[in-house]
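Hello K.,

You asked for the raw outputs rather than the summary table, so here they are, unedited. I folded two proteins back to back in the same session to keep the settings identical. This is the first:
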Amino acid sequence: MKTLITSDWHLGAKRSAGTTPVTTVTLRERLNAEFKALLMSNLDKDVLIAGDLFDSFTVDTSVILDTFHTFAEWLDASAGSLFLQSGNHDANPRGAQVSSFHLLAGILTSRFPERVTVADTGFQVLKPGLAVISHVGNQDLLDMEVAKAVELDGHWIVCHANYENTFA
C-alpha cells in the first residue's frame, strides 16, 4: 500500500500577532478542515504524520478530541495504517508530563491497536520500505540515529529534525 507522508500541521495553533479572536478561530477551523479533507481523500493509503501534529506540547482538549474524531473517521473508512512520528513540538521537555501528542497516540493505539503505530524513539522501521527518525534532543543523538538508519538498505527514511541546530 502506498503511503501519504505529511507533517507540521500545528493543529491547535494560537497566534497572537495580527490576529483577532475571530481570525484565531478561523485559522483553527481551516487547519482542521484541510487536515480532515486530506485524510479523507486518501482512504487508499497508509498515512504517516511526520511530526508536529499539534502546535505545542499541550493543546486545548477540544483540539485533541477533534483530531481523534478525524483519525477515527479515517481509520473506520480506510484499510490503511496510521503512523504517528513525534516532532520537536511533541517532545517531552517537562519530565514526566504527557504531551497532547502522546495522549492522543495512547487513545488511538488503544482503540486501533493493529492499525496505529507511534514512532517516538529515534530510528524506527514502520513497514517494509519505510523508516523514520523521530525528533531527538540534540545533534549527537541525531547523529547516532542517522548512523543506524544509513545501514538499512531499500528504505525511505523520514526525519523530523533540526539538523545542526545551534539552539539544541
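The second followed immediately with the same parameters:
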Amino acid sequence: RQVYNFASSYCAADWLTGDGWLDCPGDSDDQRGSAILLEDPDLESRQEDELGLWTRPNVHPNGWISGYYPPFLIRRGDTFQAEIGCMDRRRDCEVLFRLDYQDERGDVHPLGVWEEVYDGETSEILVNLSFLDGEVVEFVLSVNNIGDPEDADAIWFLPRIESPGSEGRLVLFW
C-alpha cells in the first residue's frame, strides 16, 4: 500500500539547484532549473497517464537539482519505489539520479545512485528502508547533469513509499 507520493507532494519539498532555491511549482523555461508535476508524462520509453515528477537541473555542464522533503517516520517493510529515466526526445540526456536521506542530526546518507541515458528504456528502482525502522528522516531526491545541459530533463515516475501497513506517517512540526 502506498503511504507517501513524492510526485503529488513535490511542493512540500524545498528545491535547490546550483543557482539557488527555486519556487514550486517550477517554470520549464527557468535556466536555474525546476521541479514540475506532470499528469501524463512522456517517458523515453512510452506515454503514461499517472503522475511523474519532472526535475531539471540548472542549465550548466555540471548542473544539479535536489528536493528536500518533510520529515517522515519509517516502519519495517517500507520501500522507496520509482521508475526513472529521461523525458522523450531528449536525445542528449545523461543524468545521475540520487536518493538520500537526512537523519534527525542533519547528517545525509546515500540510499542509491543510478545513471540514466536516453536509450529508449527506463529503470525501476526499489530500496528497502526497513533498516530505518522507527526513525524520522527527510528524503532528498536529486538529479545531476552529466550530459548536455539543455537535455537534462529527468523523470521520477510514480516516486513513492510503499508499506505493508496502512497508516500515513508524515511528521508535522510547528
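The two ends are 28 Å apart (CA to CA).

Happy to rerun anything if the numbers look odd on your end.

Regards,
P.
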